[in-house]
Write a structure and sequence with these properties.
D-Maltodextrin-Binding Protein, domain 2, 2 domains, six-stranded mixed beta sheet, 10 helices, 11 strands, binds 1-O-pyrophosphono-5-O-phosphono-alpha-D-ribofuranose
């Protein structure tokens, strides 16, 4: 939140690429940022008075909550996990996937039992909320940072709580979906103060993005 620019945080990775294409579609040029060789961190679009930056995905809600970014684009998984005070203003409808409890088929029985099972996840908050508040089941949560599917294969845990998109990772590793936690997709999030002070510019931009989605 500075001068008269709106600052937009994008999470590095798959969602950023689709988001940049969407901005290009509404006439906001992101070409410089799309260059895979660039080491630049902040990209200024003088014409639209916008500044873009790429951050680690879990940091996007943090930048937005504190107002270092007015707007962010991030998956609902990250929004739920980070639990920041931000407004979720638009479902972009891409990056669709599901948060699921997965494991070997036999682990299905453990999920029905009252035994304390072990769950590996990159999303301890979402996992805890699901088991403790929705299922009323006590579990032992082990936080990992990636390749979560390894955990039940190597018998570190009974199951995992992770994102399933195409299901290929599960299939290729002999695992399956045992329970569905929630649907996920990319969202536009906004700083709560910016939403009031820059309401017209932000709502105009969000509605242009929304219109561009309808044309797809
Ligand atoms: C995600 C997720 C699964 C995989 C699911 O991992 O954690 O491992 O994608 O996709 P699929 O259903 O299409 O196979 P990501 O690629 O983000 O890497 P990570 O394992 O390092 O988290």
């Amino acid at each position: 939140m500075n001068d008269n620019y709106l600052t937009i945080a994008l999470g590095k990775g798959r969602l950023a690429k689709t988001t940049m294409k969407l901005f290009n579609k509404i006439g906001i040029d992101c070409v410089e940022m799309q260059d895979p060789k660039t080491r630049k961190l902040i990209f200024v679009n003088e014409e639209a008075k916008l500044k873009f930056f790429l951050a680690k995905v879990p940091d996007v809600p943090t930048y937005v909550e504190y107002g270092a970014a007015d707007i962010g684009v991030v998956g609902l998984d990250t929004i739920l996990e980070e639990n920041r005070n931000i407004f979720d203003v638009l479902d972009l409808g891409f990056g669709k996937c599901k948060m699921c409890i997965c494991g070997p088929k036999e682990a299905g029985e453990l999920l029905e039992s009252k035994e304390i099972i072990r769950v590996a996840t990159k999303y301890p908050r979402i996992c805890k909320d699901y088991f403790y508040n929705k299922k009323n089941q006590t579990v032992d949560i082990i936080k990992l940072n990636g390749s979560i599917e390894l955990a039940p294969i190597l018998e570190l845990t009974d199951v995992i709580c992770d994102i399933v998109e195409t299901g290929s990772t599960l299939r290729e590793n002999g695992l399956c979906v045992l329970e569905e936690v929630c649907d996920l997709s990319a969202r536009v999030v906004v700083n709560q103060v910016s939403y009031r002070l820059e309401n017209k510019r932000i709502t105009d931009l969000v509605s242009r993005l929304n219109d561009a989605l309808k044309d797809e």
